[in-house]
Amino acid sequence: MRKSTFVPAPGVKISRTSFLINPTAHSLSFSHPLNVSLNPNSFRSPPPPPLEHHDEYDDDDGVESPSSSHSYWWSSWSRYCELRTLDSNMETASQDAPPRTFSIKLWPPSESTRLMLVEKMTINLSTESIFSKKYGLLSKEEASENAKRIEEVCFASANEHFMKEPDGDGSSAVQLYAKETSKLMLEVLKRGPRLKEEAVAEADFAEKPPLWLKLLLTYLVVVGPRVAEPILASIKNQLIEVDLSDFIAGRPEDEALDVMRIFSSALEGCKLKYLNLSDNALGEKGVRAFEGLLRSQDSLEELYLMNDGISEEAAKALAELIPSTEKLKILHFHNNMTGDEGAVAISEVLMRSPLLENFRCSSTRVGSDGGIALAEALETCTNLKKLDLRDNIFGVEAGIALSKTLEKLSGITEIYLSYLNLEDDGTIAIANVLKQSAPALEVLEIGGNDITAEAAPALAECVATKSFLKKLSLCENELKDSGAIIIGKALESNAQLKELDMSANMIRRAGARCLAQAVANKPAFVLLNIDGNAISDEGIDEVKEILKAGKNSVDVLGPLDENDAEGEGEEGEEEEEGDESELESKLEHLKVEED
């Protein structure tokens, strides 16, 4: 660590004739009979060395080694504030006068000092270093922009702290100033330079907020609401993206609600496009704590409320507090306690969201009534491209209602309907509708729905018409060999298929062989999952040989840890031979319509 020394004027006693340039050297004590005057403008600092030379600073004085990122940036900032010379005009007074002790206040820094810090941060951010070698080198312009914003944020935080500082000498404010500046500089360096396309997007503030705003939000959540409130209020007109996910973890309920109200009040009125309140165990109280923020939004395009403990009452509060969702494109409610009544409330939001493109309401305990309400509301969302309703208890009736909605969603590309208790009737209704609609469908997941071979012909006709299909999941059903063979034959024409999941379907050797034949010659195929079935060792060997002989290697075959190789037995093999003959007969009469 570098040291700075100076010779005191005659008659002046200084507690330390040399002091270390580190965050602990914020105050000097003098004993002198008269005044001590210091000129702030005499604080000087040479340009910092390039970052790759930081190993020249040792820790022989007890300061943490700069090998850690945090201590390195701490020492870097301290060099900015180095008191290299103290041009002090001190007059010698009578030795008879009683000594007096003086303390130098280091806060607030002058404007020139702040500008100097920005300049030196810019140099360090744009100088080749161990960080730039790994993450890329920032341009002078980008470094300067980030340096200015970092300094503004950290100064505001430290100044707020200084106003409440018990001793009032500014030492802890300077420590905070240095520490937080170092943190944000490190974030910028690790993020690296903007890509060209990102830089173009950031030039248009309506498309993407600058990096410093995202760093600011991350920082303010850490420092706490009281420090954050005045800063947020001063820049809220520039914010268009706010991520407050998982920001009250570990706080008691009363404190958590207070934090939410403070952030809500500070952000009220800002024109957001993106708001993420996920992972906060909001419940109804938490939702209402954000009332000011929610009510003031009329331009939201993305809203995330996942894993928030959204009960029926909380869902009703959301429907009440979000007055306008006309521009909403993404709405996610994954993993909540919404229930049927809550789903009805969410349906009201859906009916006010004609531009919605991506809706997720998975794992929300929604039953038949709620499922029907959601299905009917989704009819207004004709721009929907992605629909995820997995892991609810819709049942057959809600499945049939959903099929009527899917008929109107011609642009949909991803459908996730696993674990909805659809059974054969609900599945057949959906498959029959999709056969005539959703021409651009890329993903269809419908596993865990108690589907048997009875629904296989409808599913086969559906997937055969989907020339863009990339992923099909029918896992954890009861399709058996008969259903697997029908599905496999239909998939032979899907050239773009990449993944097929037929795990846990009571499939034996014949079905596995047909599935392998269906995917063996697809150039883009990457994964065949047939685990959890009852395929004999001979059947597995046969599957591998088929895959090796095709365009794909055996590498596309997924793990088989849960396969029950003993599940077939001799009786199963005899039954299999009879089944194959019967299946061949059925397949001859199977009509598969292709585009």
UniProtKB/TrEMBL annotation:
<dbReference type="InterPro" id="IPR001611">
    <property type="entry name" value="Leu-rich_rpt"/>
</dbReference>
<dbReference type="Pfam" id="PF13516">
    <property type="entry name" value="LRR_6"/>
</dbReference>
<dbReference type="InterPro" id="IPR025265">
    <property type="entry name" value="WPP_dom"/>
</dbReference>
<dbReference type="InterPro" id="IPR045203">
    <property type="entry name" value="RanGAP1/2"/>
</dbReference>
<dbReference type="GO" id="GO:0005737">
    <property type="term" value="C:cytoplasm"/>
</dbReference>
<dbReference type="Pfam" id="PF13943">
    <property type="entry name" value="WPP"/>
</dbReference>
<dbReference type="GO" id="GO:0005634">
    <property type="term" value="C:nucleus"/>
</dbReference>
<dbReference type="GO" id="GO:0005096">
    <property type="term" value="F:GTPase activator activity"/>
</dbReference>
<dbReference type="InterPro" id="IPR032675">
    <property type="entry name" value="LRR_dom_sf"/>
</dbReference>
<protein>
    <recommendedName>
        <fullName>WPP domain-containing protein</fullName>
    </recommendedName>
</protein>
<feature type="compositionally biased region" description="Basic and acidic residues">
    <location>
        <begin position="583"/>
        <end position="595"/>
    </location>
</feature>
<keyword id="KW-0963">Cytoplasm</keyword>
<feature type="region of interest" description="Disordered">
    <location>
        <begin position="39"/>
        <end position="68"/>
    </location>
</feature>
<feature type="region of interest" description="Disordered">
    <location>
        <begin position="555"/>
        <end position="595"/>
    </location>
</feature>
<feature type="compositionally biased region" description="Acidic residues">
    <location>
        <begin position="561"/>
        <end position="582"/>
    </location>
</feature>
<feature type="domain" description="WPP">
    <location>
        <begin position="103"/>
        <end position="198"/>
    </location>
</feature>
<keyword id="KW-0539">Nucleus</keyword>
<dbReference type="InterPro" id="IPR038214">
    <property type="entry name" value="WPP_sf"/>
</dbReference>
